[in-house]
Design a protein that fits this description.
single chain; 278 residues; alpha/beta; Rossmann fold; 9-stranded mixed beta sheet; 10 helices; globular
Length: 278
């Protein structure tokens, strides 16, 4: 493990870390914010999963989460969105919505992506084990949130592992990837043509198949150009209503898909997680 950047400031400590990943078969980078409370005791952890084309730095530099995380005593972990580096395959067509920057938080089974693209295990197993051993974190208190593709990842990881993640929220998540162009492209490319294999990575399908015993918080901008074709929060709402799952879906007039939207409402999400993890 190599600390690339370690910034000490009045409201905590921001680290950028590189480590050799077994899951993704390459060096991976993540960012970690430690609140000042971590100097005296272990603190709860909130995961942030970013969206298409992003790295760990989009959230760190644009969301403005550190002040409230410091107040609440929450550590925030922001992994990258995909493996990177020499030998890591991208989309042969060179598009932005598959391959590099677009790992979709799944374990790929299709060649040539199956060696490197194992972001599901990376986020759910490998990185928690690493940070739990190296930093003063209470890994019995984990929450997870994300944006767009990362919102999809946050929802599916929480739905699949309710014993690990005590709280979950999302900004403009891809709610039903099996039913939208982004998701169909990614799931077919990483997992193959069998739709049954996709259901584990589809929030709507998971709610339909197994329900959920915790509330879900989602914020969605109504000026988001991806709302109808790609994100489909209305489909998630119907699934939750039919399964008896508590969903707080906040539809925000005038907000789009950008980090201005996230920065506006990140405080309410952190307070939501802080309450659940306190």
């Amino acid at each position: 493990m190599k600390i690339l950047e370690d910034i000490h400031c009045f409201d905590g400590r921001q680290l950028r870390v590189q480590h050799a990943s077994d899951s993704c078969q390459c060096d991976m980078i993540f960012s970690l914010f430690l609140p000042p409370q971590a100097a005296q005791q272990k603190v709860p952890v909130v995961w942030w999963l970013s969206g298409l084309t992003c790295t760990d730095q989009n959230f760190v530099t644009k969301a403005g989460a550190q002040r409230v995380a410091s107040e609440l005593g929450l550590a925030v972990v922001a992994p990258d969105t995909s493996p990177r580096g020499d030998g890591v395959p991208g989309d042969p067509a060179g598009s932005w919505d598959f391959g590099l920057g677009a790992g979709f938080y799944v374990n790929a089974t299709q060649s040539p992506f199956d060696r490197h693209y194992r972001m599901y295990d990376y986020v759910q197993k490998e990185l928690p084990a690493l940070i739990g051993a190296e930093f003063p974190l209470d890994m019995t208190r984990q929450g997870i949130m994300g944006h767009s593709m990362g919102g999809h990842g946050a929802l599916t990881l929480a739905l699949n592992h309710p014993e690990q993640f005590r709280s979950v929220s999302a900004f403009a998540p891809i709610c039903a990837p099996s039913r939208c162009p982004w998701g169909q492209k990614a799931l077919r490319g990483y997992l193959g043509d069998d739709p049954v294999a996709w259901r584990k990575h589809d929030a709507v399908a998971l709610v339909e198949d197994r329900g959920f015993d915790k509330p879900i918080l989602v914020d969605q901008g109504l000026a988001d150009k991806f709302l109808q074709d790609q994100l489909q929060p209305d489909v998630l709402k119907v699934a939750c209503e039919q399964a008896g799952v508590s969903l707080a879906l906040n539809l925000r007039e005038g907000y789009d898909h950008s980090y201005y939207f996230i920065a506006t409402f990140i405080e309410s999400h952190l307070r939501y997680h802080g309450h659940a993890l306190s």
